[in-house]
Amino acid sequence: MHRLIRTYYRLFFGLKISSNVDFRGELPTVSGSRIQFGSNARVKVGQGVKIRNSNIEVIGGELVIEDGVSISDYSISVSKGCRLYFGANCVLEKGDNWRNPSIILWDKCNVTVANNNRLRCDVMCRFGGRLVVGEYNCINERTEIRCDEQVQIGSFNMISYNCRIWDTNTHSFYADDTRRKMTIQNYPNIGSEKDRPVAKPVQIADDCLLGEDCVVLKGSAVGNRCVIGARSVVAGKTMPNGTTAVGNPAQIK
Fold it and tell me: What is the mean pLDDT of residues 136-147?
């Protein structure tokens, strides 16, 4: 069966699938998608997996998709030395996003998404970052998770639209001449980083509600059963269990 699947992808996608790619699903589960696996990719796809209208690229990294996962209208890129894991029955979907959301891993990152999560968000993990998402979370449209060091999200959380969960400054500060030289060298890609920006771990525990447009920045810890109000900003603070915080900066009510 594995030989048949590799032959199918070579004929219909023009791809040479190495023996490191393990499909336990069936061919009809993949439709309307662009899939690329490098010769050193390590890929495992479970039973009952459905991939529709998505772009998936694994170049020298590892991708594990457990049984019953559904991926539609997503862009996923796993670079060399990175690992991306989706637990059973996860749902990745576009929702009402105007574009396909994306999950991008590079530079030895590790992202683990446990069972039964519904994702409509963007994820960017860089510089060896570690992202762990527990079970039964709902992370909605246009929310963005950026992880350059460590982000941990517990279970049974509801994370609304347009939220930002960042453990990083996202950019490093260079001398003017250094930044200008990098900009010229990398143009039209402006704002790329050669060093990891300042980063501190972010933790969101269990049973939390993050309102629309809220922001949780580096060094923040949100306890169990917390509510972060709409458009609130948690910047390097610890929110004790069972608290409600609102405002910019967020204040406990």
Answer: 98
